[in-house]
Write a structure and sequence with these properties.
93 residues, alpha+beta, 6-stranded antiparallel sheet
């Protein structure tokens, strides 16, 4: 279910959750929270314009200094399956 909660800087949702950051004119960059952590923060699987492909990037790189919104878990799939499917896209454009 979608939630749309803006997260505090030190708050991180569980793996498999969809998160997003504002980009331009109401559009949002979306990603899936990973079960892997770096420097105490989860990584995020998303399509990265900087890298030109889907990748698993650091939380702070995904956020780019912008507030991260918790968009919830909009699926009937279990979180680990959402994350597994997201990872199959790593490296694709």
């Amino acid at each position: 279910m979608y939630r749309f909660d803006t997260l505090a800087r030190d708050q991180h949702p569980p793996a498999g959750t969809v998160v997003s950051v504002p980009i331009i004119f109401g559009y949002r960059h979306k990603g899936v929270v990973s079960d892997r952590r770096r420097s105490g923060k989860p990584t995020v699987v998303s399509g990265s314009a900087k890298r030109g492909a889907v990748c698993e990037e650091l939380w702070d790189d995904f956020a780019g200094g912008k507030p991260v919104r918790d968009d919830g878990h909009p699926s009937t799939l279990p979180p680990h399956e959402v994350l597994r499917r997201a990872r199959t896209l790593i490296g694709t454009r």
